[in-house]
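W.,

You were right to be curious about this one. When I first looked at the sequence I had no strong expectations either way, so I just let the prediction run and decided to look at it fresh. Below is the sequence, 216 residues in total, followed by the output.
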Amino acid sequence: MEMILEVTLRFSAALVFGGIIGVEREWRAKDAGFRTHFLVALGSALFCIVSQYGFGAEMKDSSRVAAQVVSGIGFLGAGTIIFQRNVVRGLTTAAGLWVTAAIGLACGSGMFSVAAIATTLVILGLEVLNALIPSMGTSTVMLTFTATSKESVKNLVNQIKHDCIELCSYELKNRHTSQGNLFEANLQIKVRRGKYNERLIEYMDEFDDVNISSIE
């Protein structure tokens, strides 16, 4: 009974700590959210517990299983990384899965204080520091908008190029509709972190014939 309670406590700690990181990723609308992170932490804890108790005292070697978890979690991380239009996305989520696996191993080993400290530092790095110093670093924004005038598209693109750090790609499509020509622009721009989306919307307000399709 004592062993069952101990194992339940370790599983619960892995679920809680992994779930906390997953909730943050879910709130950020990432593909790997709460369920993925708590499953990674829970699975890592299970591997660790099985290595400790599943094969008898004479074959107890948690370090070998921990090493395999560290290398094996790479396939999940690789699945979250996307290379699209010369921009890499998903590195933070992949790193989050990697550290969540480590937190699960810590819970499986009974190192609850270590797991709690690591979880706190992860959330601190992902949210608190990001909020305190939003202007540090850059992010990539994918903007799609439509306009009925090619001149409006040109003026808006020039304004964005002047304000952003780098215009990574620019694609313009011309569609014929019942109301006339409709120009669709797809831009990928590198900007400083912060409230850049609000500035983009302010740009759009200066043009009556411009409509935003998406900002990612």
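Here's what jumped out at me. The radius of gyration is 24 Å. And, maybe more interesting for your project: The longest strand covers residues 180-192.

Coffee later to discuss?

I.
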